[in-house]
Specification:
By secondary structure, this protein is of the alpha+beta class. It has a single domain, classed as Aspartate Aminotransferase, domain 1 (Alpha-Beta Complex). Helices cover 36% and strands 23% of the residues. It contains five helices and eight strands; from the N terminus they run ααββββββααββα. The protein has helices spanning 9-13, 19-36, 85-88, 90-96, 116-130; strands at 40-43, 47-50, 53-56, 62-65, 68-72, 77-80, 100-102, 105-108. The strands form two sheets. Strands 1-2-5-6-8-7 form a six-stranded antiparallel β-sheet. Strands 3-4 form a two-stranded antiparallel ribbon. β7 and β8 (105-108) form a beta hairpin. α2 crosses α5 (116-130) and α4 packs antiparallel against α5 (116-130). It is globular, with a radius of gyration of 14 Å.
Amino acid sequence: MTAPTGQPVEEFLATVPNESRRIDARRLIALMREITGEEPVMWGPSIVGFGRYHYRYDSGHEGDSALASFAPRKQHLVIYLVGGFEDRHAPALARLGPHKTGKGCLYLKSLDGVDLAVLRELIDRSVRVRRGVDRASS
């Protein structure tokens, strides 16, 4: 389970070797800070997260995770969204720009060419679900 580490976010960003990836990471930090109203915190060794929510699956498994989070990986920026967002938000994804999706993950090569208003919408919807505000997407 990933948990907050206490490592300074800027210290982590300094270790990201790709300068454009660091710039995009700082842009995502500003966006997620604005959406969540929370400050960035390191979750595990490489995930920048904002806020916290508690989840419980039907299986009984439960835990805490970040309301919004991302990881600046070597190949992609990985933005963690609620599971099933690909189906629920297909029209928004069609407007987003170049991306790939995986289970609860949005993969972006760069923020260049991405519609930031659509990205904001996707992250905001995910945060609303995690806060229990948007039940239609939970």
